[in-house]
Amino acid sequence: AAGIGDALATWFEARACSRSGATTMAGGKCTQAALALAELCYNTLLEEGEKAMLAAEQHVVTPALERE
Question: Phi then psi for 29, rounded to 5 degrees?
Fold first, then answer.
């Protein structure tokens, strides 16, 4: 659950860094690809996160768990 919460926050952090013009750890700027990936992860978690958590708790592999 903690990992899902952290992953959800990544989209907001990435968007804030992009808007502010912050520098990455490597000294570059946030790319559109990085923003798109962060948003895709956020949307996937909203759509499948609860089902994936239930599957993990039951020790079964489901399509929702595979997407996470």
Answer: -110, 160
